[in-house]
Amino acid sequence: MREVGLWWWRFAALVRAEAASRARARTGWIAGVCFGVLWVLVAGIALDGTARLPAAWWCGLLWLGVLCTLVPQWLADSAGDAEMGATSGLLLAPLDRSWIFYARWCVRAGFACLTAAAVAGTSFIILNEPPPRHPAWFAAAFVSGVVVLSGLGTFLATLATVSRSREAVFPLLLIPVALPVILASVRLTVYAAASYGRPQVWWEVLLAYFVLLCVLPWLLYEPALEE
Amino acid sequence: MLRDLWFLWAAAGVVTLGTLAYTVLLWMRQTRLEQLVARLERELE
Amino acid sequence: MEKHRADARRRPRVGWFLAAAGALAAVVWADLYLALIASPPEENMGDLVRIMYFHVPCAWVALFAFFVSFIAAGMYLWRRNTGWDSLAVSSAEIGLCFTTLALITGALWARPVWGAWWTWDPRLTTTLILWFLYAGYFLLRGSLDGRERRARVSAVYGVIAFLDVPVVHMSVTWWRSIHPAVVSSQGIHMPPGMADALWMGLCTWMAVYALLLTVRYRMERQRERVERLVARVRAQTS
Hints:
The complex is a heterotrimer.
Chain A: H1 2-24, H2 26-46, H3 55-84, H4 98-126, H5 135-161, H6 166-194, H7 200-225
Chain B: H1 2-44
Chain C: H1 2-38, H2 52-79, H3 82-114, H4 122-142, H5 147-173, E1 183-184, E2 187-188, H6 192-237
Helix pairs in contact in C: 1-6, 2-3, 2-5, 2-6, 3-4, 3-5, 3-6, 4-5
């Protein structure tokens, strides 16, 4: 019983340390939000300042905006790891190294949800999108998509950290792997916004990725972190 | 008919010639590496 | 004297390669004869069906090569023997080449049959994603310093890339596919003359894969030797 308590306490300490370091590294997430909002603006202008988009288009643009918000944040985190040794403190934690991943995933998913929500809010306003038909489903789909995406981003950013040209390599590592997640997120939000499509299979895709993200780092994160 | 054959020859050519080109390329890379190994070994001796 | 010794070391390799390549060339000629001349034309597609005897084996060999690369990457992470890493990168490179060939021959088939070089068919889309996954693998590999680190990080990505393939495949399968299914759980859907040509193609290109893998693997080992020697020369001169 005491052991379990200790283990939880260590993990919570890891989460706190990571959250503090994320909060300090402001440039990453401020730049991320700016990029995301700018993307929505550019998309609106490129579509000739349209008054009203079909739901499927709006959702596609929304998720591209979310990617534009998240990728700079992951790159900034990765640069922080490589150049300022942000990971080295966490390596001292008396826990299996894979727990570093789970702690980071929790914290980064939180930050990702907040920043992505800012972009979603802006795109509702700028692109004149009416409120979704099923607001609860919309929120659930949005949060699940962002959580799974940030798990992938956290893992792959760690891999890209040691690369000489991580800014170029990271998007290429991320996008093919994340494509089904993006697809599923778009489909689920389209369903929530306009009651259109079959949501069941796309929940299964997100679930499959979630399970992979829970299991794989346990096997693979330690070799990814080795020096 | 002739048009069909054009597509067929293009596909067969791409696969066979592409594989051949890749084999030759590998062989050239291998030969160059062997020469490099011989030169480096001479330098070390 | 030294040159003579180096030559003597090299000669058996040339002989071995030429013998294997010669035997394979004969098999490839036989396959070309079967695919282009001996097999019957199809009733709807005519001679265009013959593209399949190149396209399908390329796609299967590519998937097999990626599977070998995945196993080798897993073995590297387990055993930490650089030989496994050499095998993983060799097989992945050949897999990428065969994926490229499968995409090109697929487009050459699609243009006359479907009227478009590219369609958003699940099979096509997933294959293109697969191509990018492994292109990413090579870019990552190329930008990593240090033998051990390069092997370790690319092995981790190699495992992820391969595990992603079934997920990618399943996720887009829910779109309707117009891609013909040659082999399904009910067996092969074609007359015996055509099935023979297909099997012959598969065996031929598998043999080509085996030869290429051997050559590529030896090359990778040679490259490692060069890296070690360069380090030694640098240490001696500095």
